[in-house]
From TrEMBL, chain A:
<dbReference type="InterPro" id="IPR003439">
    <property type="entry name" value="ABC_transporter-like_ATP-bd"/>
</dbReference>
<feature type="domain" description="ABC transporter">
    <location>
        <begin position="4"/>
        <end position="238"/>
    </location>
</feature>
<dbReference type="InterPro" id="IPR013563">
    <property type="entry name" value="Oligopep_ABC_C"/>
</dbReference>
<dbReference type="GO" id="GO:0005524">
    <property type="term" value="F:ATP binding"/>
</dbReference>
<keyword id="KW-0547">Nucleotide-binding</keyword>
UniProtKB/TrEMBL annotation, chain C:
<dbReference type="InterPro" id="IPR000515">
    <property type="entry name" value="MetI-like"/>
</dbReference>
<feature type="signal peptide">
    <location>
        <begin position="1"/>
        <end position="19"/>
    </location>
</feature>
<dbReference type="InterPro" id="IPR050366">
    <property type="entry name" value="BP-dependent_transpt_permease"/>
</dbReference>
<keyword id="KW-1003">Cell membrane</keyword>
<keyword id="KW-0732">Signal</keyword>
UniProtKB/TrEMBL annotation, chain D:
<dbReference type="InterPro" id="IPR013563">
    <property type="entry name" value="Oligopep_ABC_C"/>
</dbReference>
<dbReference type="Pfam" id="PF00005">
    <property type="entry name" value="ABC_tran"/>
</dbReference>
<dbReference type="InterPro" id="IPR027417">
    <property type="entry name" value="P-loop_NTPase"/>
</dbReference>
<dbReference type="InterPro" id="IPR017871">
    <property type="entry name" value="ABC_transporter-like_CS"/>
</dbReference>
<keyword id="KW-0067">ATP-binding</keyword>
TrEMBL record, chain E:
<feature type="transmembrane region" description="Helical">
    <location>
        <begin position="99"/>
        <end position="126"/>
    </location>
</feature>
<dbReference type="Pfam" id="PF00528">
    <property type="entry name" value="BPD_transp_1"/>
</dbReference>
<dbReference type="GO" id="GO:0005886">
    <property type="term" value="C:plasma membrane"/>
</dbReference>
<comment type="similarity">
    <text>Belongs to the binding-protein-dependent transport system permease family.</text>
</comment>
<dbReference type="InterPro" id="IPR000515">
    <property type="entry name" value="MetI-like"/>
</dbReference>
Length: 303, 534, 280, 319, 323
């Protein structure tokens, strides 16, 4: 039994399909990175997994159950948000942010709370004296560490991290990523790591899922995916990443026309597009062990 | 008088500006049977048969030149003036009077002085000739005369074509009065002289503007824009001093203002309590402060001696003098005796142990009354009685007061040619209605069986000496019972400016009241006397 | 600076009113002098048309006026905060319904409603306070709702939910603390509004003329034609007292505004005063 | 470089706040040659934007330029009067801001935003100005019909392109680009960068390109300057930057970027946080975070040439 | 729910509530027109006359809900009835006399204070910290702290009574002929100075603050920086870029103010005897003139809703983002 099973998840906002037919699973202690272009539905997926948003179709199973009670779910699934400025309440102290989950999920009594808070701060590499400060007195990296500490206060099995480092300065990003890695190793916590920075997904290792236009179009081990991308979008994405070592390679295709409402969302930009692509969404096609993609061209290439 | 003098061509003087309308926008309604009609309807356009002049105490001829009572006091004969024409040129005659009175009799909902006598006492109305009207009453009620002759008369040839006189707005009035309508705007209107008027009138016309409140009126009067106005605060200082040669006022008094207690309520049913209250009141201060010293404190019967020469009994007044004079010690003693215990804080409790505190309500905007109420309240406070002054909208006030649901309020005694109406309101059981039923006259709800007999006798006689004797007895009852508490004599407010016109009535030339009062259309007596200033 | 001035004026006024029994031991109603006596040593601010000491009325009357204004401020703020927060937090149908009610209340003509209500209830400061609360909460509710709505979009609310907080607790412990300055500014504004609107009602005669307050002082001044008689002190004293109170609250509000909105707070200096300062 | 287009010398900017003056730009000197792309990188808050705004004198209170000169074609911009300053702006120095959504007036049609700058500086009529705007749109690959649109009706990439087109409206000699692609998706970023490169090749304007993404700079810039704590700490040609970067801070920065073809090596980032600008430590600002720091670092290191066309401010890497 | 049905629902619900309130509120007040009738006509009416008058006035004793049904059916036929206090003038005629003046006074004072206030606010924000900024907004604020009627009475007393510079009240004098002529226009203007001027004086502070606050927000936006970088002239930057954007939020408030022009001028009209609807409403309330009150309430609500609608529409025109 997987820790998390996402089955055929979909969400619409009015007419717009933000996420469609998303299915994936996560094991204990696994980091799964979800990458994709802006507006492809990454955050929407994350919010559905964190139960902040109700799915329109499909379901989310935690340890095989779709009906975990609210509080129990919260004690197992936590979330870290993109913006460390917005995710901490400017009116409350750091201590408050860490104490509340401890008390709510009975991880500590009121008496033990201060020590527990201090321990948490130390875990994420912060000075325990920060507990009495307000968020605006902390730097961005410190804030994001506090946000991570808050998620870890309840000792969750899964942390949904929605672009946890993209608002942080380059020099401190890596520290936060390393922290996540360490926590995974030490506590067997699983991460759903959302990002549009393919390099950092690869850095964390684990598996990677690529989203485009609401669909998960490719999945597989991060190293494999970044090395031998199968889906044309993944290829485009990787080619666009600035890479001083490799030198730039111009592969950009400008989108022409609106995104189609049927078929593969990538048709408008795809160099390999066929008529079939315009009418039907490609099925999941196995590329290699644990590596799959959804592209009609793929089947043909393999044939 | 009596004959039509040839009118001179209109003199080109300024219009006489008179304050009589309240409201920022005025509706064009000149129906004399509607209380919502414009002021000029009943005071400049349509005339009554005769006018009670309460300054001279005489009944002055208007459309009628005289009246006679039959020996049994049941038939009234009125002689009409010769040579009167309506403003459209049609001659005026007894048919018009007959028509007006019958119209009122047959059409319910018409407002007019004659309404009550027509419904209650009048038997038949006939016109033996063009200049005579004979009214037969069912019983001898001589005071009905004043109501009947005050009725404004309308032209038969016009009103017989009016479909519904109740909802008629009579936008282009045709009357016998000294003026006719010239321009009308919602903000005000102008009248010009009626060239066919039966008397000589020099002023070319009247101008009437609407004002929203007393302050606006005061401001207009004080800035000299008005020729004829009403109340001016502290007139010597604010008004006369500005232009002593031209600014004048004259405030004759015709009725008293009373502190009215609801005699159906527990402590107020006791005359001793009413008298105790009365003795606690600082009437001199009311006159000084609310009336700038321009009036007098009330006498014991609540009738101004000026207005009723010869009617008041000096011995009764002397007898009652004590009860209407400030004597705090006596008031306190009387309250102690009546069982009003005084607490440590100086406040009393009623014999039932409740706080001696009541609401004294006055209509919003009645500035002099509100001011007086303030003084009543502080006076009573000296004796340990609390009177909370509350101002309420007039309709709220009237429904509370006339419905008998008030505790304390102020009221004005009825004015009249004789004290009959006043005492009827004050003492007659016929005017007492059960609480909840509307009573506009006797809202203090006091009745006295002995007074009833005296009032009946009064009405049945037309002999003035006899009436005066009966009036003395009524005064005696009043002083003994003190149904309401007289405070001070209410002036008939009036102010005028002689820059443009002279000839206004004044203390030196007291030919008529100065106040313009829709109930007594004495302004008709003034118009002919006004002359352009030099 | 502005807030300090505002606070100081307010403190002096409030103290004077609190100390009324010491400053004017005879009470406001004692009518001991002649009408409209000009200011003198015996009567610092002269006497009114009733022969009462204007200074005594001012300090005693301030108690009623300030109490009334304060209760209206607190009352409307409470209702507005409650309604606004509930609407904003729960959103959806609840918000839809509450907003509808709020908008309808906003379209109901305020002043006429006040007059009708004031005529309906027994006159007095309590009635005026009630009437102003009934008619005054809607705008605040809309304001608080808008503010709370924008806060609700912020991630820390989602974070609190993820932590497992219950809705009411999120509102009380996470949303509310961020709204204090808005609420305080609104409270100030409401107190000012109540002070002027309340005195307007009293001035119109819809109050209780028997109780001394700044509004009824103006009512009496008008009733006794004080201005026309040249007794400006009876009129100007209460008017100025109201204006000073309202003005000082407005100054406080100004400062609170700056506290809410950091952009209003930045240090002075003309906008484009980027001077070039060079050595030598 | 005598033939420099822009020569900034000894420029200092302070923010004078309640808590004291923060020196956001500290005695900075650099030059931009005609047609050159100078990349400026550094951590958040190191003063990049302040420097960018100081050049066309766009800083607002409480910022104060306390020293230095900004020479553009021989004139010192800091000495110009208001009218002359306005006439230089955009016609000689144009700008592209980080977030085009915010930089375009939301209530004005795109066409008018082109037209007002064209008309202000050239005196062309409205119709002619719109014609010119249409040309510019075609140049950056936007359908000229879009000139009738409001900014919010365009996608993020289109807005950024439009901002670029507006910047080129008067064919300026220098375009300052302050993180023009940071808000965009990688794919879009690539697209815009290619657009910029192509246009520059055609029109020959110089660019001061600001970003915090060194990888990007290495791809697009001719020379790279690294800023730290208000100062420029290293300046070198882009071509060999990866290998030749000498300053410990620059090296730290480079070590903070995971790359798509690195294999499993652990990156460390730079521990610690940047110095306070209000009360900066004496000497080298990076000393507190530097592994090579020694006593010498208490004195400000000179900005010296350590290799041809390569300068750095560090005692440890000096010649 | 999408925007359009929601707006429609709002207007329907607001209309229904207004009509219901219009009917019941006046009838909940203490006192009734019948007693007032008795009081006013004391002694001049018999009981039968009174009944006849009550019938004519339409004051029936039927249960309230029945009266409400009658009222609704009349309303649907567009019948607003006759005024009781000005009986038998139709309500529409009574309102007709005040409508124009209220509109004139209201629009002039609201637009003037909005315009002046916004300009002061914009300039203060642009020159933040200058002497102008440290004087103008606080002064405007302090002027706005005076109770309105206090200012108005003081102005009336000083300008009209004491110095006699301006007319005492009303909308125009007797000596001019109403119509489209210069003399009348000048006279109307002279009569407008005090009422409108006092309203402007006390209401300007709010607009100043509003504009200053939103403007300061806008000044921080990148598009302002870009406008300056473009070398545009200062008036263009302040006008087309800063003020144009800053005015948007203020605009909704302007709508609210304009919507209230028929309701909010009671004190002005009382003090200056101005022949508008505010004073009529006050009179209607104090005389229990139900039909007039109902019609005025209806007018006020409808005008608020209409202005709301107009603001919605205008907002769409002014702010392309909400289209
Ligand atoms: N609350 C919402 N209402 C309407 N549309 C929404 C809402 N939230 C997201 N969307 C739309 O759904 C789509 C997916 O959005 P989402 O935020 O999940 O994308 P994302 O992959 O996280 O993008 P980014 O990288 O920019 O954060 C977008 O087109 C977005 O506009
Ligand atoms: N208006 C201001 N008042 C005070 N300090 C300011 C102001 N604007 C910027 N600063 C400070 O000046 C320093 C430089 O800011 P600047 O915006 O130039 O940095 P940056 O390098 O552009 O950063 P980023 O990469 O985040 O855009 C920062 O420390 C900042 O806190
Ligand atoms: Mg996202
Ligand atoms: Mg920057
Ligand atoms: Ni009839």
């Amino acid at each position: 039994m997987s820790l998390l099973d996402v089955e055929n998840l979909g969400r619409t906002f009015g007419e717009a399909h933000a996420v469609r037919e998303a299915s994936f699973s996560l094991e204990r202690g696994e980091i799964v990175a979800l990458v994709g272009e802006s507006g492809s539905g990454k955050s929407t997926t994350a919010r559905m997994v964190a139960r902040l948003l109700a799915p329109t179709t499909g379901r989310v199973l935690l340890e095989g159950s779709a009906t975990v009670p609210e509080l129990a779910y919260r004690s197992k699934v936590q979330m870290v948000f993109q913006d460390p400025f917005g995710s901490l309440n400017p009116a409350r102290t750091i201590g408050h942010h860490l104490t509340r989950p401890l008390l709510l999920h009975r991880r500590a009594t009121r008496k033990q709370a201060p020590q527990a808070v201090a321990a948490l701060l130390e875990t994420v590499g912060l000075d325990p004296s920060l507990a009495v400060r307000h968020p605006h007195e902390l730097s961005g990296g410190q804030r994001q560490r506090v946000a991570i500490a808050r998620a870890f206060a309840v000792e969750p099995l899964l942390v949904v991290a929605d672009e946890p480092v993209s608002m942080l300065d380059v020099s401190i990003r890596i520290g936060v990523l390393n922290l996540m890695e360490r926590l995974r190793d030490e506590r067997e916590t699983a991460f759903l790591y959302i990002t549009h920075d393919v390099a950092s997904a690869r850095y964390l290792g684990g598996r990677m899922l690529v989203m485009y236009g609401g669909h998960i179009v490719e999945g597989g081990p991060a190293r494999v995916l970044t090395g031998e991308p199968a889906h044309p979008y993944t290829r485009l994405l990787l080619a666009a990443v600035p890479n001083p070592r490799r030198g730039s390679s111009s592969t950009v295709t400008r989108p022409t026309g609106p995104r189609p409402s049927t078929g593969c969302p990538f048709t408008a930009r795809c160099p390999l597009v066929t008529d079939l692509c315009r009418t039907t969404m490609p099925p999941v096609t196995r590329v290699a062990d644990g590596h799959w993609a959804r592209c009609h061209a793929l089947g043909k290439e393999n044939q | 008088a009596g004959t039509t003098e040839p009118q001179k061509p209109q003199s080109q003087g300024p219009l006489l500006t008179i304050i009589a309308e309240q409201g920022a926008t005025l509706a064009r309604n000149f129906n004399p049977f509607a209380a919502t009609s414009r002021w000029a309807t009943r005071n400049a356009l349509y005339e009554p048969l005769m006018i009670w002049n309460h300054v001279t105490g005489t009944l002055e001829p208007s459309l009628a030149t005289g009246h006679t009572w039959s020996a049994d006091n049941k038939t009234l004969t009125l002689t009409l003036r010769e040579g009167v024409t309506w403003s459209d040129g049609t001659p005026f005659g007894s048919a018009d009077v007959l028509f007006t009175l019958e119209l009122m009799r047959t059409h319910k909902g018409l407002v007019g002085e004659a309404a009550t006598p027509l419904a209650q006492y009048v038997d038949t109305i006939t016109a033996p000739d063009a200049k005579t009207v004979v009214i037969a009453l069912r019983e001898a009620i001589t005071p009905a005369l004043y109501d009947l002759v005050s009725q404004r008369i309308v032209p038969k040839h016009i009103w017989e074509k009016v479909a519904d006189p109740v909802t008629e707005t009579n936008q282009n009035p045709v009357g016998t009065g000294p003026f006719v309508l010239s321009t009308f705007r919602p903000q005000g209107y102008e009248l010009k002289r009626n060239d066919k008027y039966w008397q000589k009138v020099e002023i070319p016309g009247l101008r009437l503007s609407g004002y929203t409140g007393q302050d606006q009126i005061n401001a207009a009067v004080l800035s000299g824009q008005i020729d004829w106005g009403a109340v001016v605060p502290d007139p010597d200082k604010t008004f006369v001093a500005k232009d002593p040669a031209n600014h004048h006022y004259w405030w004759p008094r015709t009725a008293d203002v009373n502190l009215v207690v609801n005699t159906t309520l527990k402590p107020f049913d006791d005359p001793a309590v009413r008298k105790a209250f009365s003795m606690a009141l600082d009437r001199a201060r009311m006159v000084d402060i609310a009336l700038w010293g321009k009036s007098d404190v009330a006498n014991a019967v609540g009738l101004p001696s000026q207005a009723y020469p010869g009617w008041l009994d000096e011995s009764v007044l002397a007898e009652g003098k004590k009860t209407v004079t400030l004597d705090l010690a006596a008031a306190n003693a009387a309250l102690d005796a009546a069982g009003f215990a005084k607490g440590a804080d100086g406040k009393r409790t009623t014999p039932d142990g409740k706080p001696a505190a009541w609401d004294l309500i006055v209509p919003t905007g009645w500035t002099d009354w509100i001011s007086v109420a303030g003084i009543v309240s502080s006076s009573l406070a000296q004796a340990g009685i609390t009177a909370n002054v509350k101002t309420v909208g007039f309709d709220n006030w009237s429904s509370t007061v006339y419905g008998g649901k008030f505790q304390l309020t102020l009221g004005a005694g009825k004015r009249g040619a004789t004290p009959y109406g006043y005492f009827r309101d004050m003492l007659s059981t016929a005017t007492v209605k059960p609480v909840g039923e509307v009573s506009t006259n006797n809202f203090h709800r006091y009745g006295n069986a002995e007074a009833d007999k005296l009032l009946t006798a009064f009405a049945a006689t037309s002999d003035e000496a006899e009436q005066k004797r009966i009036a003395a007895d009524l005064q005696r009852i009043y002083v003994a019972e003190l149904p309401t508490i007289p405070l001070y004599e209410q002036p008939d407010w009036g102010a005028f400016v002689t820059k443009r016109y002279t000839g206004f009535p004044s203390a030196d030339n007291a030919y008529a009241p100065l106040a313009n009062d829709p109930l007594f259309p004495t302004t008709y007596l003034v118009y002919p006397k006004l002359k352009a200033a030099r | 600076m502005k807030s300090a001035a505002g606070g100081a004026i307010l403190a002096v006024l409030a103290l004077a009113c609190l100390a009324a029994p010491l400053l004017a031991p005879d009470g406001p109603a004692a009518a001991t002098a002649g009408a409209f006596e000009a200011p003198s040593a015996a009567h610092w601010l002269g006497t009114n048309g009733q022969g009462q000491d204007v200074f005594a009325q001012l300090v005693w009357g301030g108690r009623g006026s300030l109490l009334m204004a304060l209760s209206v401020g607190v009352g409307t703020t409470l209702v507005a905060v409650l309604v606004g927060l509930l609407a904003a937090y729960f959103g959806g149908l609840a918000d839809e319904a509450i907003s509808l009610v709020v908008n309808i209340v906003l379209t109901v003509p305020g002043l006429p409603l006040i007059i009708v209500l004031a005529a309906f209830l027994p006159p007095g400061p309590a009635t005026i306070a009630m009437v102003l609360i009934i008619t005054g909460w809607a705008f605040g509710a809309r304001l608080i709702r808008a503010q709370a709505l924008s806060l609700r979009q912020r991630d820390f609310i989602a974070a609190a939910k993820v932590a497992g907080e219950r809705p009411l607790r999120v509102i009380a412990a996470e949303l509310l603390p961020n709204l204090w300055s808005v609420i305080a500014a609104y409270l100030c504004g409401q107190v000012v509004f109540a002070l002027t609107a309340g005195s307007a009602l009293e001035f119109l005669g819809l109050g209780d003329a028997g109780q001394t307050s700044w509004g009824t002082m103006l009512f009496w001044a008008q009733n006794d034609s004080a201005l026309l008689q040249g007794a400006w002190w009876t009129f100007v004293s209460p008017g100025l007292a109201i204006a000073l109170t309202a003005g000082s609250l407005a100054l406080l509000n100004f400062a609170l505004d700056a506290a809410t909105n950091p952009r209003l707070r930045a240090p002075g200096g003309a906008r484009r005063a980027t001077e070039v300062l060079r050595h030598g | 470089m005598a033939d420099a287009l822009l020569a900034v010398e000894d420029l200092s900017v302070e923010y004078r706040g309640l808590r004291g003056a923060a020196r956001a730009v500290d005695r900075v000197s650099f030059e931009v040659a005609p047609g050159e792309v100078l990349g400026l990188a550094g951590e958040s808050g190191c003063g990049k934007s302040t420097l960018a705004l100081a050049i066309p004198r766009l800083l607002r209170a409480p910022a104060v330029i306390t020293s230095g000169s900004v020479r553009l074609g021989g004139r010192d911009i800091l000495e110009l009067d208001d009218r002359r300053l306005r006439s230089i702006r955009w016609s000689e120095i144009a700008m592209v801001f980080q977030n085009a959504m915010n930089a375009l007036n939301p209530v004005m049609r795109l066409g008018s935003q082109f037209a007002d700058v064209i008309r202000t500086h050239t005196g062309l009529g409205r119709a002619r100005a719109l014609e010119r705007a249409a040309e510019l749109c075609t140049l950056v690959g936007i359908d000229p019909a879009r000139l009738r649109s409001y900014p919010h009706e365009l996608s993020g990439g289109m807005r950024q392109r439009a901002a670029l087109a507006i910047a080129l409206a008067l064919e300026p000699k220098l375009v300052i680009m302050d993180e023009p692609t940071t808000a965009l998706d990688v794919v879009l970023q690539r697209e815009i960068m290619e657009e910029i490169t192509a246009l520059r090749e055609r029109l020959g304007f110089a660019v001061l390109f600001i970003t915090h993404d060194i990888s990007l700079l290495i791809e697009v810039a001719d020379r790279i300057a690294i800023m730290y704590g208000g100062r420029i700490v290293e300046q070198a040609p882009a071509r060999s930057f990866l290998e030749s970067a000498a300053h410990p801070y620059t090296r730290g920065l480079l070590a903070s970027f995971p790359s798509i073809d690195d294999d499993g090596e652990r990156l460390t980032g730079i521990p610690g946080s940047p110095p306070s600008l209000i009360d900066p430590p004496a000497g080298c600002g990076f000393a507190a975070r530097c592994t090579l720091a020694s006593d010498r670092c208490r004195e400000t290191p000179p900005f010296v040439e350590i290799a041809p066309a390569h300068r750095a401010a560090c005692w440890e890497v000096g010649a | 729910m999408s925007r359009l049905p929601r707006r429609v629902l709002f207007y329907l619900a607001a209309g229904a509530v207004a009509v219901t309130l219009n009917f019941f509120l006046p009838r909940l007040m203490p006192g009734d027109p019948a007693t007032t009738l008795v009081a006013t006509y004391s002694g001049q009416l018999t009981a039968e006359d009174l009944q006849a008058l009550r019938d004519a006035y339409g004051l029936v004793d039927a249960p309230l809900w029945q009266q409400f049904a009658t009222y609704l059916s009349h309303l649907f036929r567009g019948e607003l009835g006759v005024s009781l206090s000005q009986f038998p003038t139709p309500v529409t005629e009574v309102i007709g006399t005040g409508f124009g003046w209220s509109l004139l006074l209201g629009l002039v004072s609201v637009l003037l204070s909005f315009a002046i206030g916004s300009v002061i606010g914009a300039v203060a924000a642009w020159r933040r910290g200058s002497r102008f900024d440290s004087i103008a907004p606080p002064v405007a604020l302090f002027a706005g702290s005076f109770p309105y009627f206090f200012m108005a009475l003081l102005a009336l007393y000083l300008f009209a009574v004491q110095w006699q510079l301006l007319p005492l009240g009303q909308a125009y004098g007797f000596d001019v002929e109403p119509g489209l002529n210069a003399a009348f226009a000048a006279d109307v203007l002279a009569h407008l100075v005090l009422p409108a001027g006092t309203v402007v004086l006390v209401s300007i502070g709010g607009w100043v603050l509003n504009m200053r606050n939103t403007m300061i927000g806008v000044l921080d936006e990148d598009y302002l920086l870009m406008a300056e970088a473009k070398g545009l002239s200062t008036p263009r930057v302040v006008g087309s870029y800063a003020a144009r954007n800053a005015i948007l939020p203020t605009f909704t408030l302007l709508g609210l103010s304009i919507g209230n022009v028929f309701a909010g001028q009671l004190l002005t009209e009382v003090v200056f005897s101005y022949p508008g609807l505010g004073y009529q409403l006050y009179q209607a309330v104090t005389t229990h003139d139900y039909p007039l009150m109902q019609a005025l309430f209806l007018l006020i609500t409808v005008s608020i809703l209409v202005v709301n609608l107009l603001v919605d529409v205008a907002y769409v025109l002014l702010d392309p983002r909400v289209r």
